[in-house]
Protein backbone atom coordinates (compact mmCIF):
# COMPACT_ATOMS: atom_id res chain seq x y z
CA UNK A 1 0.00 0.00 0.00
CA UNK A 2 1.54 3.33 -1.04
CA UNK A 3 1.80 6.45 1.07
CA UNK A 4 -1.22 8.21 -0.47
CA UNK A 5 -3.44 5.17 0.16
CA UNK A 6 -2.24 4.98 3.76
CA UNK A 7 -3.00 8.69 4.22
CA UNK A 8 -6.44 8.18 2.68
CA UNK A 9 -7.16 5.35 5.12
CA UNK A 10 -6.25 7.62 8.03
CA UNK A 11 -8.53 10.39 6.79
CA UNK A 12 -11.43 7.97 6.25
CA UNK A 13 -10.93 6.53 9.74
CA UNK A 14 -11.11 10.05 11.16
CA UNK A 15 -14.30 10.70 9.17
CA UNK A 16 -15.86 7.45 10.43
CA UNK A 17 -14.95 8.41 14.01
CA UNK A 18 -16.56 11.83 13.57
CA UNK A 19 -19.73 10.36 12.05
CA UNK A 20 -20.01 7.69 14.73
CA UNK A 21 -19.45 10.07 17.63
CA UNK A 22 -21.96 12.52 16.14
CA UNK A 23 -24.75 10.23 17.35
CA UNK A 24 -23.84 11.40 20.87
CA UNK A 25 -24.07 15.05 19.81
CA UNK A 26 -27.44 14.31 18.23
CA UNK A 27 -28.69 12.86 21.51
CA UNK A 28 -27.25 15.65 23.69
CA UNK A 29 -28.57 18.37 21.39
CA UNK A 30 -32.12 17.20 22.06
CA UNK A 31 -31.73 17.91 25.78
CA UNK A 32 -32.62 21.54 25.01
CA UNK A 33 -34.03 21.68 21.44
CA UNK A 34 -36.42 19.51 19.48
CA UNK A 35 -35.20 16.93 16.95
CA UNK A 36 -36.23 18.91 13.87
CA UNK A 37 -34.70 22.14 15.14
CA UNK A 38 -31.44 20.33 15.91
CA UNK A 39 -31.35 18.83 12.41
CA UNK A 40 -32.11 22.21 10.86
CA UNK A 41 -29.37 23.93 12.85
CA UNK A 42 -26.60 21.44 12.11
CA UNK A 43 -27.38 21.13 8.38
CA UNK A 44 -27.70 24.87 7.87
CA UNK A 45 -24.38 25.35 9.66
CA UNK A 46 -22.75 22.67 7.49
CA UNK A 47 -24.24 24.25 4.38
CA UNK A 48 -22.87 27.65 5.35
CA UNK A 49 -19.40 26.19 5.75
CA UNK A 50 -19.53 24.37 2.41
CA UNK A 51 -21.02 27.24 0.41
CA UNK A 52 -17.71 29.10 -0.21
CA UNK A 53 -16.14 25.89 -1.55
CA UNK A 54 -19.20 25.19 -3.71
CA UNK A 55 -19.12 28.72 -5.15
CA UNK A 56 -15.43 28.30 -5.94
CA UNK A 57 -16.22 25.07 -7.78
CA UNK A 58 -18.95 26.89 -9.68
CA UNK A 59 -16.43 29.49 -10.84
CA UNK A 60 -14.12 26.71 -12.05
CA UNK A 61 -16.51 23.86 -12.93
CA UNK A 62 -14.95 20.40 -13.34
CA UNK A 63 -15.79 18.26 -16.34
CA UNK A 64 -19.12 16.57 -15.67
CA UNK A 65 -21.66 14.97 -17.95
CA UNK A 66 -24.42 17.51 -17.32
CA UNK A 67 -23.52 21.07 -16.35
CA UNK A 68 -27.08 22.46 -16.52
CA UNK A 69 -27.80 24.65 -13.49
CA UNK A 70 -31.47 23.70 -13.59
CA UNK A 71 -30.62 20.00 -13.58
CA UNK A 72 -28.14 20.51 -10.73
CA UNK A 73 -30.71 22.30 -8.58
CA UNK A 74 -33.38 19.68 -9.33
CA UNK A 75 -30.99 16.91 -8.28
CA UNK A 76 -30.08 18.84 -5.12
CA UNK A 77 -33.76 19.34 -4.25
CA UNK A 78 -34.48 15.63 -4.63
CA UNK A 79 -31.45 14.59 -2.57
CA UNK A 80 -32.14 17.22 0.07
CA UNK A 81 -35.72 16.01 0.52
CA UNK A 82 -34.56 12.40 0.85
CA UNK A 83 -31.82 13.36 3.34
CA UNK A 84 -34.40 15.30 5.36
CA UNK A 85 -36.60 12.21 5.70
CA UNK A 86 -33.65 9.93 6.55
CA UNK A 87 -31.96 12.16 9.12
CA UNK A 88 -35.18 13.18 10.87
CA UNK A 89 -36.38 9.59 11.24
CA UNK A 90 -32.97 8.92 12.76
CA UNK A 91 -33.10 12.00 14.99
CA UNK A 92 -36.60 11.35 16.33
CA UNK A 93 -35.72 7.69 16.86
CA UNK A 94 -32.77 8.68 19.05
CA UNK A 95 -35.25 9.94 21.63
CA UNK A 96 -36.20 6.35 22.46
CA UNK A 97 -33.21 4.17 21.61
CA UNK A 98 -29.53 4.05 22.45
CA UNK A 99 -26.72 5.62 20.47
CA UNK A 100 -25.27 2.14 19.94
CA UNK A 101 -28.46 0.75 18.44
CA UNK A 102 -28.93 3.80 16.23
CA UNK A 103 -25.36 3.65 14.91
CA UNK A 104 -25.40 -0.04 14.03
CA UNK A 105 -28.92 -0.08 12.57
CA UNK A 106 -28.15 2.97 10.45
CA UNK A 107 -25.05 1.21 9.14
CA UNK A 108 -27.21 -1.57 7.74
CA UNK A 109 -27.96 0.71 4.78
CA UNK A 110 -24.84 -0.82 3.18
CA UNK A 111 -26.65 -4.16 2.89
CA UNK A 112 -29.91 -2.53 1.79
CA UNK A 113 -28.12 -0.73 -1.05
CA UNK A 114 -26.91 -4.05 -2.41
CA UNK A 115 -30.35 -5.66 -2.03
CA UNK A 116 -32.07 -2.79 -3.84
CA UNK A 117 -29.42 -3.07 -6.54
CA UNK A 118 -30.28 -6.75 -6.91
CA UNK A 119 -33.98 -5.88 -7.31
CA UNK A 120 -32.91 -3.42 -10.03
CA UNK A 121 -31.15 -6.30 -11.83
CA UNK A 122 -27.63 -5.45 -10.67
CA UNK A 123 -25.31 -8.40 -10.19
CA UNK A 124 -25.40 -9.84 -6.65
CA UNK A 125 -23.07 -12.52 -5.33
CA UNK A 126 -23.42 -15.00 -2.51
CA UNK A 127 -21.89 -12.47 -0.14
CA UNK A 128 -24.97 -10.24 -0.45
CA UNK A 129 -27.25 -12.99 0.80
CA UNK A 130 -24.87 -14.16 3.53
CA UNK A 131 -24.31 -10.58 4.64
CA UNK A 132 -28.05 -9.89 4.64
CA UNK A 133 -28.70 -12.94 6.77
CA UNK A 134 -26.04 -11.99 9.30
CA UNK A 135 -27.31 -8.41 9.46
CA UNK A 136 -30.95 -9.42 9.96
CA UNK A 137 -30.06 -11.90 12.70
CA UNK A 138 -27.77 -9.34 14.33
CA UNK A 139 -30.50 -6.70 14.22
CA UNK A 140 -32.86 -9.16 15.89
CA UNK A 141 -30.48 -9.74 18.80
CA UNK A 142 -29.72 -6.01 19.09
CA UNK A 143 -33.26 -4.61 18.80
CA UNK A 144 -35.83 -7.29 19.70
CA UNK A 145 -36.27 -8.07 23.39
CA UNK A 146 -36.77 -11.49 24.97
CA UNK A 147 -40.49 -10.66 24.95
CA UNK A 148 -40.32 -10.28 21.14
CA UNK A 149 -40.99 -6.54 21.21
CA UNK A 150 -39.30 -3.90 19.08
CA UNK A 151 -38.71 -0.44 20.50
CA UNK A 152 -40.26 2.53 18.71
CA UNK A 153 -36.83 4.16 18.36
CA UNK A 154 -35.26 1.10 16.76
CA UNK A 155 -38.16 0.89 14.33
CA UNK A 156 -37.56 4.48 13.24
CA UNK A 157 -33.84 3.73 12.80
CA UNK A 158 -34.75 0.87 10.46
CA UNK A 159 -36.93 3.19 8.38
CA UNK A 160 -34.08 5.71 8.37
CA UNK A 161 -31.61 3.08 7.14
CA UNK A 162 -33.95 2.19 4.27
CA UNK A 163 -34.22 5.84 3.22
CA UNK A 164 -30.42 6.24 3.48
CA UNK A 165 -30.08 3.30 1.09
CA UNK A 166 -32.31 5.06 -1.44
CA UNK A 167 -30.21 8.21 -0.97
CA UNK A 168 -26.98 6.33 -1.70
CA UNK A 169 -28.40 5.01 -4.97
CA UNK A 170 -29.61 8.46 -5.97
CA UNK A 171 -26.19 9.93 -5.17
CA UNK A 172 -24.60 7.29 -7.37
CA UNK A 173 -26.85 8.42 -10.23
CA UNK A 174 -26.60 12.20 -9.81
CA UNK A 175 -22.91 12.42 -8.84
CA UNK A 176 -21.90 11.16 -12.28
CA UNK A 177 -23.74 14.11 -13.85
CA UNK A 178 -22.90 16.97 -11.47
CA UNK A 179 -20.09 18.23 -9.27
CA UNK A 180 -20.36 16.33 -5.98
CA UNK A 181 -19.45 19.27 -3.74
CA UNK A 182 -22.03 21.63 -5.29
CA UNK A 183 -24.63 18.86 -5.13
CA UNK A 184 -23.88 18.19 -1.46
CA UNK A 185 -24.09 21.87 -0.59
CA UNK A 186 -27.53 22.24 -2.21
CA UNK A 187 -28.86 19.11 -0.51
CA UNK A 188 -27.66 20.36 2.88
CA UNK A 189 -29.43 23.70 2.38
CA UNK A 190 -32.64 21.91 1.32
CA UNK A 191 -32.51 19.49 4.25
CA UNK A 192 -31.84 22.29 6.71
CA UNK A 193 -34.64 24.52 5.42
CA UNK A 194 -37.20 21.69 5.26
CA UNK A 195 -36.32 20.65 8.81
CA UNK A 196 -36.62 24.27 9.94
CA UNK A 197 -40.13 24.52 8.47
CA UNK A 198 -41.21 21.41 10.39
CA UNK A 199 -39.55 22.73 13.57
CA UNK A 200 -41.40 26.05 13.28
CA UNK A 201 -44.66 24.10 12.88
CA UNK A 202 -44.20 21.45 15.59
CA UNK A 203 -41.58 22.62 18.10
CA UNK A 204 -40.83 25.63 20.31
CA UNK A 205 -38.07 27.68 18.68
CA UNK A 206 -35.90 29.72 21.01
CA UNK A 207 -32.60 31.47 20.41
CA UNK A 208 -31.74 30.82 24.04
CA UNK A 209 -32.24 27.08 23.60
CA UNK A 210 -30.18 27.10 20.41
CA UNK A 211 -27.37 28.85 22.29
CA UNK A 212 -27.53 26.22 25.04
CA UNK A 213 -27.17 23.51 22.39
CA UNK A 214 -24.37 25.35 20.57
CA UNK A 215 -21.67 22.75 21.20
CA UNK A 216 -23.84 19.83 20.03
CA UNK A 217 -24.92 21.85 16.98
CA UNK A 218 -21.34 22.85 16.19
CA UNK A 219 -20.16 19.26 16.46
CA UNK A 220 -22.98 17.91 14.30
CA UNK A 221 -22.76 20.74 11.75
CA UNK A 222 -19.15 21.86 11.52
CA UNK A 223 -17.51 18.47 12.14
CA UNK A 224 -19.98 15.86 10.87
CA UNK A 225 -21.51 17.72 7.92
CA UNK A 226 -18.69 20.14 7.05
CA UNK A 227 -15.39 18.48 7.96
CA UNK A 228 -16.53 14.84 7.69
CA UNK A 229 -17.80 15.24 4.15
CA UNK A 230 -14.68 17.16 3.11
CA UNK A 231 -12.42 14.45 4.55
CA UNK A 232 -14.35 11.84 2.59
CA UNK A 233 -14.03 13.84 -0.62
CA UNK A 234 -10.26 14.26 -0.19
CA UNK A 235 -9.62 10.70 0.99
CA UNK A 236 -11.55 8.83 -1.68
CA UNK A 237 -9.46 10.34 -4.44
CA UNK A 238 -6.66 7.99 -3.40
CA UNK A 239 -8.52 5.36 -1.37
CA UNK A 240 -8.64 1.65 -2.08
CA UNK A 241 -12.42 1.00 -2.33
CA UNK A 242 -12.32 -2.19 -0.25
CA UNK A 243 -10.53 -0.23 2.49
CA UNK A 244 -13.26 2.42 2.31
CA UNK A 245 -15.92 -0.26 2.81
CA UNK A 246 -14.21 -1.60 5.92
CA UNK A 247 -13.39 1.78 7.43
CA UNK A 248 -16.79 3.40 6.88
CA UNK A 249 -18.51 0.32 8.32
CA UNK A 250 -16.62 1.12 11.54
CA UNK A 251 -18.98 4.07 12.08
CA UNK A 252 -21.23 1.82 14.17
CA UNK A 253 -18.29 0.75 16.34
CA UNK A 254 -17.27 4.37 16.94
CA UNK A 255 -20.89 5.20 17.76
CA UNK A 256 -21.01 2.42 20.35
CA UNK A 257 -17.70 3.53 21.89
CA UNK A 258 -18.86 7.16 22.05
CA UNK A 259 -22.15 6.12 23.66
CA UNK A 260 -20.24 4.15 26.29
CA UNK A 261 -17.59 6.82 26.93
CA UNK A 262 -19.82 9.93 27.02
CA UNK A 263 -23.29 8.65 27.95
CA UNK A 264 -22.35 5.60 29.98
CA UNK A 265 -24.39 3.24 27.76
CA UNK A 266 -23.92 -0.47 28.35
CA UNK A 267 -24.60 -3.45 26.10
CA UNK A 268 -25.80 -6.82 27.30
CA UNK A 269 -24.26 -10.01 25.96
CA UNK A 270 -27.21 -10.24 23.58
CA UNK A 271 -26.48 -6.71 22.35
CA UNK A 272 -22.78 -7.41 21.79
CA UNK A 273 -23.71 -10.51 19.80
CA UNK A 274 -26.11 -8.47 17.68
CA UNK A 275 -23.51 -5.76 17.01
CA UNK A 276 -20.89 -8.33 16.06
CA UNK A 277 -23.21 -10.13 13.65
CA UNK A 278 -24.32 -6.85 12.06
CA UNK A 279 -20.74 -5.67 11.55
CA UNK A 280 -19.81 -9.04 10.05
CA UNK A 281 -22.86 -8.90 7.78
CA UNK A 282 -22.13 -5.37 6.57
CA UNK A 283 -18.53 -6.22 5.75
CA UNK A 284 -19.44 -9.53 4.07
CA UNK A 285 -22.10 -7.94 1.88
CA UNK A 286 -19.89 -5.02 0.92
CA UNK A 287 -16.63 -6.88 0.23
CA UNK A 288 -17.44 -10.39 -0.96
CA UNK A 289 -19.32 -9.47 -4.17
CA UNK A 290 -16.69 -6.89 -5.08
CA UNK A 291 -13.97 -9.52 -5.37
CA UNK A 292 -15.77 -11.26 -8.18
CA UNK A 293 -17.28 -8.23 -9.81
CA UNK A 294 -14.14 -6.48 -11.01
CA UNK A 295 -13.38 -2.82 -10.37
CA UNK A 296 -14.93 -1.48 -7.22
CA UNK A 297 -16.93 1.70 -7.03
CA UNK A 298 -16.45 4.30 -4.33
CA UNK A 299 -18.69 3.79 -1.34
CA UNK A 300 -21.13 6.71 -1.14
CA UNK A 301 -21.89 8.19 2.30
CA UNK A 302 -24.82 10.13 3.83
Lay out the secondary structure.
Blueprint: H1 3-29, H2 35-59, H3 69-93, H4 99-107, H5 109-119, H6 126-143, H7 152-174, H8 180-202, H9 207-212, H10 214-235, H11 241-249, H12 251-263, H13 269-293
Helix pairs in contact: 1-10, 1-11, 1-12, 2-8, 2-10, 3-7, 3-8, 4-7, 4-12, 4-13, 5-6, 5-7, 6-13, 11-13
Question: What report would you give on this structure?
Answer:
With 302 residues, the protein is mostly helical. Helices cover 78% and strands 0% of the residues. The protein contains 13 helices and no strands. The radius of gyration is 19 Å and the shape is globular. Mean pLDDT is 84; it is low at 291-302.
- Low-pLDDT runs: 291-302
Derived from helix and strand composition plus strand pairing, the structural class reads mainly alpha
**First-last Cα distance:** 27 Å
Main sheet overview:
none
Order of helices and strands: HHHHHHHHHHHHH
Cα shape: globular
Number of strands: 0
The gyration radius over C-alpha positions equals: 19 Å
What portion of the residues fall into strands of 2 or more residues? under 5%
Helical fraction: over 70%
Key traits:
mainly alpha, 13 helices, 0% strand, 302 residues, 78% helix
How would you summarize this macromolecular structure in one to three sentences?
With 302 residues, the protein is mainly α.
Amino acid sequence: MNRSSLRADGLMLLAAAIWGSTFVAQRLGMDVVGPFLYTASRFLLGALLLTPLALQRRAHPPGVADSSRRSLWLAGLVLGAVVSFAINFQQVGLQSTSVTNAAFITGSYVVLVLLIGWVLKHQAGAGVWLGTGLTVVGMYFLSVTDQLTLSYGDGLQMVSAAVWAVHVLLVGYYARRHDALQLACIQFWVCGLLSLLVALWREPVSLGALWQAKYAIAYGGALSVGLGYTLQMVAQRHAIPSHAAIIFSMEGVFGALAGWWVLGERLTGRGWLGCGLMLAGMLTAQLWPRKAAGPEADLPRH
